[in-house]
């Protein structure tokens, strides 16, 4: 059970605020003041959280440099105390924080890179559910194909950006050689983890619209119509094969029932 006592709240309130005074209830041996001990502990808590953020966002750190990153992460930590004792859950809104962090305005793609890194870690820790067996599609009445929907795998994510963040992420994670990029080229990607390895799939405009609609629960017919409106060259057969091959879904649904 959580300790909601006044003393506990007072102790925690100052942990991430260097300007907060030591709570009066905190005393050292023999009743002496414990300001120095409290400040050391407070600094250690802040540093450990900064380290946790750095572990989750190595590509962001590589882009801006360690000193810049740790200064930015310190501001984030002070404004966003953890809500769970599990450190891998910390920093889920770091991408949004970066979007609003004034010194990072010159790097408008940075928040999207952070969102990829966050999704990467979340996908890694997602439930180990078996991806949809493509053979199950053969159980659907061909006349009803347009009416089916799919249950997404919990490790599946769509990330869309106005910048080439797929390539930026891969370059700064060491998966792709560094090269000059055209920053005016938008990129969308789908992240999946059908077995044990997380995968990133770069999507065309039509593929992005289709996959995004499917993972949001749209029917096959609805997703296909949306994609065709966006991209006249959209190929439903290719995209359906791609959807099944990537392991992005776990179940087919028809009329509210799994089949």
Automatic annotation (TrEMBL):
It comes from the Bacteria. This is DNA-binding domain-containing protein. GO terms for molecular function: DNA binding. Residues 10-98 form the Putative DNA-binding domain. Keywords: DNA-binding. Gene3D superfamilies: DUF2063 (1.10.150.690). Coiled coil: none annotated.
